[in-house]
Structures are given as C-alpha cells and as structure tokens.
Amino acid sequence: MISSPVFGIDIGGTKCAASILQKNGRVRELGRIVTGAPAATLEQLARVVEQHGAGRNPTFGIACGCPLDLTRGLVMSPFNLPGWDR
Fold first, then answer.
1. How far is residue 22's CA from residue 26's CA, in Å, rounded to a whole number?
2. What is the pTM of this model?
3. What is the pLDDT of residues 50-72, one digit of tens each?
C-alpha cells in the first residue's frame, strides 16, 4: 500500500512532465511545462508537485536523458539542456 505520494519527473530538452502514482496503482499525469533555465523550470515543477500533496513525505523518481552523478545527485553536461551542468 502506498502511504505517501510517489511522483515521477521527466526532464527533457523541450518539455518536462510530472506524474503521480495513485493509490490504485495507476499513473496520472499532473502536467507538462516548457523546459527553460534550470531555476525557473525546477520552480515550476515544484509548484505542480506541491499542488498534489508533496508536503506529506513524498518519494520522487526523476528521469533525465544525460550523464548523471548518482552519488551526488547531479546532472552532468546534458547536450540537450544548455545551462543544466551540475
């Protein structure tokens, strides 16, 4: 049973999408935004997630098609995301 919200975030070169895993096991898309500068994009994604209960100890899965430093949780030099280096 899912006790806290589980969110999925897809960071792409032209758009980002957020989804939530519902209690019935189905995934529901919450919204899409245009990918822009890192700070503005992350702020918009945070707003989408907060509107759906992120304040209750959420879990996140984040996808980004580029090299990652998993130990430090960093995006490393994505060719399709100018300005998103580290």
1. 5
2. 0.83
3. 888 766 788 899 898 888 888 99
Q: Which residue has the tokens 């995934």?
A: 27
CA-based nearest residue to 4, from 49, 57, 69, 52: 57
> Which pLDDT tens digit goes with each residue over 42-52?
999 999 988 88
What is the domain partition of the chain in residue ranges? 6-75
Length of the chain: 86
Q: Which residues contact 17 (CB under 8 A, 6 or more apart)?
A: 9, 10, 29, 31, 32
Topology adopted by domain 6-75: Nucleotidyltransferase; domain 5 (3.30.420)
* Contacts (Cβ under 8 Å, ≥6 apart) of 14: 34, 35
Distance CA 42, CA 9 (A): 10
